[in-house]
Automatic annotation (TrEMBL):
Signal peptide: none
Pfam families: Bac_globin
Protein name, as recorded: Hemoglobin
Region span, Disordered: 151-185
Record key words, sorted: Heme, Iron, Metal-binding, Transport
Superkingdom field: Bacteria
Taxonomic path: Bacteria, Pseudomonadati, Pseudomonadota, Betaproteobacteria, Burkholderiales
Molecular function in Gene Ontology: heme binding; metal ion binding; oxygen binding
UniProt cross-references to CDD domains, sorted A to Z: TrHb3_P (cd08916)
Transmembrane segments: none
SUPFAM superfamilies: Globin-like (SSF46458)
InterPro entries, per database record: Globin-like_sf, Globin/Proto, Hemoglobin_trunc
Length: 185
């Protein structure tokens, strides 16, 4: 998966250099416009969110604002909300990630784009592992993307090679976002 080539960074690069509340909202709405128009993802979201889009979109603005701007306005449990989704397959995740990363890269310069891409890739991986099991191999190109946007540290005297090449079955070191609340996020 490789998001569409973005314009090279130069004086002509009109993409945002910094996320703000306004451009995060524009990103969220643009992404979900694409999701809804997508023949694979559209029906999944439209079925689940019928009549609730007006709540979902501001919630997603709070989610991304919390991650990228540190607004701490999102309160929810991302894992839990995805558990009951039926019929979600690996290809749904690939499509979700492609659309999200592509939308981000078309709107933000690389240093700002990474701030969205890194949590998106990590959270997607964590959702994939809980949905498909610990033996599910994260697609190589998805892993490579994460390595590209968030290279793992390789300290000079790293003798703990076992950790660098984590065997399958160990907990995935992803930060799970949000905590369960009894109310809406
Ligand atoms: C195959 C990929 C995905 C599909 C099909 C999917 C689908 C959905 C659907 C249908 C909902 C609405 C659930 C409801 O309110 O009943 C939802 C909520 C949400 N999704 Fe996803 N999602 C996907 C991947 C992701 C990823 C990778 C992230 C994070 C980077 C994410 C973040 C969220 C958040 C924050 C919510 C709102 C949770 C809440 O209600 O507090 N989703 N997703």
């Amino acid at each position: 998966m490789s998001p569409a080539a973005a314009p090279a960074s130069s004086a002509a690069d009109t993409r945002h250099a910094e996320p703000t509340e306004d451009n995060v909202r524009e990103l969220v709405y643009a992404f979900y416009d694409r999701v809804r128009a997508d023949e694979l993802l559209g029906p999944v979201f439209d079925e689940k969110l019928a009549g609730r889009w007006d709540d979902h979109l501001p919630k997603m603005c709070r989610f991304w604002g919390s991650l990228v701007l540190g607004t701490k306005t999102y309160r929810g449990n991302v894992q839990q909300v995805h558990q009951p989704l039926d019929g979600i397959e690996p290809r749904h995740f690939s499509r979700w990630l492609f659309l999200f990363l592509d939308t981000v890269e078309s709107r933000f310069r690389p240093a700002a784009a990474v701030r969205f891409m890194e949590p998106a890739l990590r959270i997607a991986q964590s959702l994939q592992l809980s949905r498909f099991g610990w033996d599910y191999p994260i697609p190589a190109e998805q892993q490579a993307l994460l390595e590209r946007v968030a290279p793992r540290r390789h300290p000079k005297n790293d003798v703990d090679d076992a950790h660098a090449h984590r065997p399958r079955g160990e907990p995935f070191p992803a930060k799970i976002v949000g905590r369960a609340t009894d109310g809406d996020a």
